[in-house]
Design a protein that fits this description.
The complex is a heterodimer. By secondary structure, chain A is α/β, with parallel strands linked by helices. Chain A contains 10 helices and 5 strands, in the order H-E-E-H-E-H-E-E-H-H-H-H-H-H-H. In chain A, strands 2-1-3-4-5 form a 5-stranded mixed beta sheet. Chain B is of the alpha/beta class. Chain B has 18 helices and 34 strands. In chain B, strands 10-7-6-18-29 form a 5-stranded parallel beta sheet. The longest helix of chain B is centred in the N-terminal third of the chain and has 20 residues. Classes of the chains: A alpha/beta, B alpha/beta. The interface between A and B is medium-sized, with 26 and 32 residues. The structure holds flavin-adenine dinucleotide and iron/sulfur cluster (4 copies). Flavin-adenine dinucleotide binds next to helix 6, strand 11, strand 19, helix 11 and helix 12 of chain B.
Chain lengths: 276, 657
């Protein structure tokens, strides 16, 4: 039995036994290589799940739909390791309770799918240990190296060109599981910290705020990058912020569910120079 | 409509010499919303303040900007003036055109431009100020003093004598601290115990003081006027209410060869012991790690000896109590540095190389040699004693960077005591320089040299080694530029004063700041030396910086005065500059809860009509919040705002630049 059939039947039995109220997975999309999220509430609906090498999206964003988890019931969800990593971050930030999530885990390597063992968040501690060594996709790695090789002036020019394309659609924000605030800072208009119009300055403001708000929180799932209609390589910014945080604080986002947010916590040896 | 009054102060020439105040007044007069704008030589003076008040009344001003000095200096002055003229005092802003402008610039034109911008941005801010009311909190008029050295004892006595309750917590079995170990004290050479023990007895007998020895502060929660302190009373295995202090148990204890901490290892104690003869309370304690019964399950000789039933109780457990207090005085003192970092001085290797504190014990009438200065190795009188000053202090490479402040004085004292006890003895003191500032201090060191024959050699010691039964001290005399060698019988190291080993951890537990070494931070070195940055927590003694007894006692009384000032009121008015959370937008990520350095943010349940919890949000306790703004900067969803410094105000301020 292939992994798709295995997970279809597993999702169906989770639903029919009442263990979960909903399973979030993938269904067929508008083209042969696109998948769209499918929300199954019955065993029959679970038969429409698709699971193949095109299922690359991070579905964990949907867990945070307002009110979904407030009844305390469980939800099943198809997740790759980066999705599991984002679940860890969300738990650490008190947005999810671990016992409300049933994970149907899978990994894609060279176009091949393998099922990940374990169903509850705690079962994935082993995976979490490996998360730190997860390599970035080679294409991303190459882009990073290309950017690092630039002079600051060239790099600034590069980003200025990129950000000038931004149309402030906020698709990147909507796709990101970490952008869960009910009201985003860009929607604050009293005062209007971030310029609404999509000229270069306003675009810079927005993209810098986004980068900082994701420092030490990004799961590197690439959802933002894929969502961007004008193809701004947002992952490159995230990867750089991730590196900064790792080098400065030896912190790797999403390594565990009880990690303290890096920018809100301090270690005992930090000098308390902020107390004058 | 905003009606703002702008008052430009010359501060004599302090501002006017570098800022064209006429130009500043002209520029601001045209600014939208500015109703009156004028300048004056000293607005903080009485006539200056009168001008402000009159303008408020005559023009019905809605806000005031005084362009003058730092708000640290005169904010209170002008707030009061506003209040007297009927304007809410929080409708005032001080534009700092002195410290941030005239004092730091040398180009008048540019300085004037900057002063205009600073003032204009505060006009924009003040337009958006809200009327605020001080927060009233009740005050529990009982103080906690942590540490029972001379600092803690003095502070406790001063507070108690003014009629307020005090709980004095000391972690050792007796109060007294280091002063109880000293022999005679500079600069007057009075016997330390003789001047200290009356204070110790007074403290324990004082009706307003509860002394908790062998106890430690585990946790402090709350805020100024309203702290709850959790104290652990460590199991003493002796019921101090029943014990008469007869000491029979101590006599009979079979474990007699335990190096005494009080005697700095120069004498022994038993497993059940009182640290010293005049201990307060004079009730023994069992050292669990050394007691034969606790080790082998057999002995209990002390219990059999004790005449009083159930007085010695091997089943005693640590107990905990919670105490409500309104103020805390931290007086946890110091330790001396571990001299083994100086291998070349031979401390720990040669028995006759000792620390200054050990010398105190040798010279003390109650010490292991009954006050005779004898070599620890063979009990003989030393003919030549070498004292090495700055053995740790002022040595960034191995020791500490700072000067321990007391060692020059106590070394002179040691040389004197030695001369008084051994009339033919020879003392040599290696020193970097003599720091003897203080009443009677220089006279004291002169006396050591002129009357008691102390030989001062300016220079550092490189090595101490043994040869033919002598300790050879090799160094340089930097005044002569020559190497010197002294054959000594005893070497005394003036070891550095360092913070308690657990000082940093302790500071975090109770919520105060500390410096790079672990000495606790005062709120302002010059103007608020006994307050900490945490309101309601005060400092005194050697836990703040190295100091001698006169300074310690002065600081202790100063901290008591601060506590009594706080206790003079039943209600406390606090600055209303506190944070508040917008519940509807808070995402409940608890970043702010973790980031708040004062633990002022709690989690709060939001319930629907049926009482069901629908979400949890952050909630600031205004009594605890110090208005630092850390949470505001952390919150990604922009759900926290700080009264008096709201985002709207700050934004307007920035945009006006
Ligand atoms: C060798 C030597 C000679 C000296 N000679 C002189 C002299 O001649 N004249 C002079 O003026 N000064 C002299 N001094 C300095 C003097 O000892 C100090 O100024 C004085 O002891 C400081 O008092 P204190 O109460 O601040 O600290 P301490 O005496 O150290 O007392 C602190 C107390 O707090 C207790 N404590 C610590 N942590 C805790 C805790 N967490 N909870 C509860 N209790 C705690 C300790 O057990 C101790 O009892 C000398 C010092 C030394 C080392
Ligand atoms: S910022 Fe982009 S890559 Fe990072 S977690 Fe959000 S969506 Fe994924
Ligand atoms: S998705 Fe792309 S275009 Fe849209 S706001 Fe984000 S960066 Fe800008
Ligand atoms: S940081 Fe902001 S969103 Fe997070 S809990 Fe605090 S107030 Fe709420
Ligand atoms: S302003 Fe400072 S003290 Fe007040 S709640 Fe925020 S972080 Fe805590």
């Amino acid at each position: 039995m292939g992994i798709q059939e295995q997970y279809r039947s597993e999702a169906a039995s989770l639903l029919s036994s009442g263990e979960v109220k909903l399973v979030i997975g993938f269904g067929a999309g508008s083209t042969a290589d696109r998948r769209r999220p499918l929300f199954a509430r019955t065993g029959e609906e679970a038969n429409r799940f698709v699971l193949d090498a095109s299922c690359i999206a991070n579905l964990s964003t949907y867990l945070l739909t307002e009110g979904l988890l407030s009844d305390g019931k469980k939800v099943g969800i198809f997740l790759k390791p980066d999705g599991i990593r984002s679940i860890n971050i969300l738990i650490a930030e008190a947005q999810l309770k671990p016992d409300q999530v049933v994970i149907l885990g899978y990994a894609i390597e060279n176009g091949q799918l393998t099922a990940l063992e374990g169903r509850s968040v705690a079962d994935f501690n082993g995976v979490n240990e490996k998360i730190r060594s997860l390599a970035l996709p080679p294409a991303v790695q190459q882009d990073i190296e290309r950017l690092e090789a630039m002079s600051p002036v060239e790099r600034f020019q590069f980003w200025q060109d990129q950000f000038s394309k931004c149309i402030k659609c906020y698709a990147c924000r909507q796709a990101c599981p970490m952008c869960y605030c009910r009201r985003c800072i860009v929607d604050v208009n009293q005062p209007q910290w971030v310029n609404t119009s999509s000229h270069t300055l306003g675009n810079f403001e927005w993209n810098i705020v986004r980068a900082f708000h994701l420092a030490g929180r990004c799961a590197a799932c690439g959802a933002c990058d894929r969502a961007c209609p004008v193809n701004i390589p947002l992952r490159l910014i995230n990867a750089r912020m991730g590196r900064e945080v790792r080098e400065a604080f030896d912190y790797f986002a999403g390594e565990s569910t009880d990690q303290k947010p890096v920018l809100a916590s301090f270690s005992k040896d930090d000098p308390e120079t902020f107390i004058l | 409509m905003a009606k703002i009054g702008v008052f430009v102060c010359h501060c004599g020439e302090n501002i006017a010499s570098m800022v064209d105040t006429g130009n500043l007044v002209r520029s601001l007069s045209d600014h939208p919303g500015v109703e009156v704008c004028n300048e004056y030589k000293y607005f903080c003076s009485d006539p200056g303040q009168e001008t402000v008040k009159r303008a408020i009344r005559e023009h019905n001003l809605t806000g005031v900007v005084v362009a003058a000095c730092s708000p640290r200096m005169h904010e209170q002055t002008f707030r009061k003036a506003c209040a007297e003229a009927g304007l809410n005092p929080y409708m005032l802003e001080l534009a700092n055109i002195r410290e941030q402008c005239s004092w730091v610039h040398s180009n008048k034109e540019q300085a004037t431009g900057k002063a205009i911008e600073i003032t204009r941005s505060l006009v924009e801010k003040v337009k958006r100020n809200n009327e605020l009311k001080p927060i009233s909190v009740p005050v529990t008029r009982r103080a906690l003093v942590i540490g029972g050295g001379i600092a803690g004892i003095q502070a406790a006595l001063d507070i108690a004598s003014a009629g307020r309750e005090v709980v004095l917590v000391e972690r050792e079995p007796s109060i007294g601290g280091h002063m109880s170990q000293l022999s005679e004290t500079f600069p007057t050479l009075d016997c330390s115990q003789c001047i200290l023990t009356p204070r110790m007895v007074e403290a324990i007998q004082h009706p307003n003081i509860r002394v908790l020895t062998y106890s430690e502060v585990e946790e402090v929660v709350g805020y100024i006027g309203n702290f709850t302190v959790k104290v652990r009373n460590k199991a003493r295995y002796v019921d101090i209410d029943k014990c008469t202090g007869c000491g029979d148990c101590i006599q009979k204890c079979p474990q007699k060869k335990i190096p005494s901490e009080f005697e700095c290892g120069l004498g022994n104690r038993s497993a059940i012991y009182t640290p010293f003869a005049q201990a307060v309370p004079n009730k023994p304690v069992i050292d669990r790690n050394r007691c034969t019964y606790f080790k082998n399950g057999k002995c209990k000789i002390c219990q059999k000896t004790c005449q009083i039933e159930h007085c010695i109780d091997f089943d005693m457990q640590d107990t905990y109590e919670e105490i409500e207090v309104g103020a805390i005085v931290v007086a946890t003192g110091f330790q001396i540095q571990d001299t083994s970092v100086y291998g070349e001085y031979g401390y720990g290797k040669y028995k006759d190389v000792i620390t200054g504190l050990q010398f105190e014990r040798l010279a003390s009438a109650s010490g292991p040699t009954a006050g005779k200065i004898l070599r620890p190795s063979d009990g003989k009188e030393p003919e030549t004693v070498v004292f090495i000053q700055c053995a740790g202090s002022r040595d960034p490479s191995k020791g500490v960077k700072y000067c321990s402040k007391i060692c020059c004085m106590y070394t002179a004292k040691h040389a004197m005591l030695y001369a008084h006890k051994h009339h033919h003895g020879n003392s040599q003191i290696f020193y970097m320089d003599i720091r003897a500032a203080g009443k009677g201090y220089d006279e004291f060191t002169r006396r050591a040299i002129e009357e008691d024959g102390a030989g001062y050699v300016r220079g550092r010691v490189s090595k101490v080694f043994q040869e033919n039964g002598k300790l050879i001290v090799r160094g340089v005399d930097t005044l002569l530029g020559k190497p010197v060698e002294v054959a000594a019988d005893m070497v005394v190291l003036a070891t550095a004063m360092v913070p308690q080993p657990d000082a940093k951890e302790f500071a975090k537990r109770i919520g105060i700041g500390y410096d790079e070494y672990g000495f606790f931070n005062e709120a302002h070195l010059k103007l608020r030396p006994v307050e900490t940055a945490t309101a309601g927590i005060y400092l005194c003694g050697a836990c703040q910086s190295p100091k001698d007894i006169p300074d310690t006692v002065a600081q202790a009384s100063a901290s008591a005065a601060k506590v009594l000032g706080l206790f003079s009121r039943e209600q406390l008015e606090r600055e209303p500059v506190v944070a508040a959370v917008t519940e509807s937008t808070c995402a409940g990520c608890w970043g702010c809860v973790m980031a708040c350095p004062y633990n002022a943010i709690e989690k709060q349940d939001i319930k629907d009509r049926n009482g069901k919890v629908i979400k949890q949000v952050a909630s600031v306790n205004p009594g605890l919040c110090q208005g630092c703004g850390t949470c505001v900067t952390f919150c990604r969803s922009n759900s926290i705002d700080l009264a008096g410094f709201t985002e709207k105000q700050i934004f307007a301020e920035v945009m006006a630049l």
